[in-house]
Design a protein that fits this description.
The chain is an alpha/beta fold. It has one domain: TIM Barrel. Helices cover about 30% and strands about 20% of the residues. It has eleven helices and 16 strands. It has helices at about 30-40, 60-75, 95-105, 130-140, 160-175, 190-200, 210-215, 235-245, 265-270, 285-295, 300-310, and strands spanning about 5-10, 15-20, 25, 45-50, 80-90, 105-110, 145, 180-185, 205, 255, 320-325, 330, 335, 340, 350, 355. Helix 6 (about 190-200) runs parallel beside helix 8 (about 235-245). The longest helix has 16 residues, at about 160-175. The protein is globular, with a radius of gyration of 19 Å. The mean pLDDT is about 95. Bound molecules: N-carbamoyl-L-aspartate (NCD) and zinc ion.
Length: about 350
């Protein structure tokens, strides 16, 4: 049992209280959509690592500072939510920018997108060897590299791209940079869970709720389901079970990262639909569903609220959030900043509800 988790039974309803959690991988976008989705995250999480894949990407400390100001100005009145900013690594990132990021204090990670791997990744990295000096600066400063771990070679099967990246790109990079801290983001395979488990303490991984709840059959159930399409794509059931095992193992190397990625309904229900699931609305309820179904609700707090701060060298949050074992139905759709979103599990019943 995690140190703080309290489960109490009141009037046959079960309530769980966990230290206020953080989301260690979140897409907020910008403008009206950002303002709209921010409240969904801020109602549950104290902090979130904000992904830099805007158009244009957040590649400099000054851009990250301006983006942070826009987020802070868009927060609901009274919210104490803290955005933890990141920089988007390119082959031209000057090592000095990373030293400045450390000095600035509000930048907590540098994101590696292999060019072409996912949404707004075209400005990303084609050859990681061209980033050696930037990675050295990361080693010096202790800022973690946050990795979208998929190769982009079209001859590699899409279901194998994560496992191939870990062996061909990440392992050699870890050998070249013995002090580099790495978060393998949104892991989706047994190989990734094992890679992180067998590595050194400088390695960690985030896990999404959708990869814990669904396998790849969900994308094709009765027809193509565009709202189940994300990257890295959902995998086989054996991989989902490995991810659940890792997330509920109690190991501090695994922590919560929703990868909540809002895309307008019509851009997902499209002949070439965008990748990304909108999970922020019910994030904790979705994770509770997965942990409870696997019989490890008592490990939810470590995963959601304790392991991430320990890896990032930040304090655990003050205060608690409560979940109650009372069913909640996810809305069929949401309007955020005037844009229609279809949340993950739209119209479906979840077993747990977040209490205000
Ligand atoms: C993310 C997005 O839409 O920005 N999409 C996704 O499928 N996860 C990008 C990413 O994290 O890959
Ligand atoms: Zn993401």
């Amino acid at each position: 049992m995690a140190p703080h988790a309290k489960i109490s039974t009141m009037n046959t309803e079960t309530i769980i209280a966990i230290k206020r959690p953080d989301d260690w991988h979140l897409h907020l976008r910008d403008g009206d959509l950002m303002t709209g989705v921010l409240a969904d995250t801020a109602k549950q999480f104290a902090r979130a690592i904000i992904m830099p894949n805007l158009k244009p990407p957040i590649t400099s400390v000054s851009q990250a500072g301006a983006y942070r100001d826009r987020i802070l100005k868009s927060l609901p009145v009274g919210s104490k939510f803290q955005p933890l900013m990141t920089l988007y690594l390119t082959e031209a990132t000057p090592p000095n920018e990373i030293l400045s990021a450390k000095e600035a204090g509000f930048i907590h990670g540098v994101k590696l997108y292999p060019a072409g791997a996912t949404t707004h990744s075209d400005a990303g990295v084609r050859d990681l060897l061209r980033c050696q000096n930037a990675l050295k600066a990361l080693e010096e400063t202790g800022i973690p590299l946050l990795v979208h771990a998929e190769v982009t070679d079209p001859s590699v099967d899409i279901f194998d791209r994560e496992a191939v990246f870990l062996e061909e790109i990440l392992r050699p990079a870890l050998d070249r940079h013995p002090k580099l801290k790495v978060v393998v983001e949104h892991i989706t395979t047994r190989q990734a869970a094992e890679f992180v488990a067998q590595g050194e303490d400088r390695l960690a991984a985030t896990l999404t709720a959708h990869h814990l709840l669904f396998n790849r059959n969900a994308i094709f159930q009765g027809g193509v389901r565009p709202h189940m399409y994300c990257l890295p794509v959902l995998k086989r059931e054996e991989h989902r079970l490995s991810l659940l095992q890792a997330a509920t193992s109690g190991s501090s190397r695994y922590f919560l990262g929703t990868d909540s990625a809002p895309h307008a309904r019509e851009t997902k229900e499209n002949a070439c639909g965008c990748a990304g699931c909108y999970t922020a609305y019910s994030a904790l309820e979705l994770y509770a569903e997965a942990f409870d179904a696997y019989g490890y609700l008592s490990r939810l707090e470590g995963f959601s609220s304790l392991h991430g701060p320990a890896f990032y060298g930040l304090p655990v949050n003050e205060g608690f959030v409560k979940l109650q074992r009372v069913p909640t139905v996810v809305p069929e759709h949401l309007i955020r900043g005037g844009i229609e979103l279809v949340p993950l599990c739209a119209g479906e019943r979840l077993a747990w509800s977040l209490l205000d």
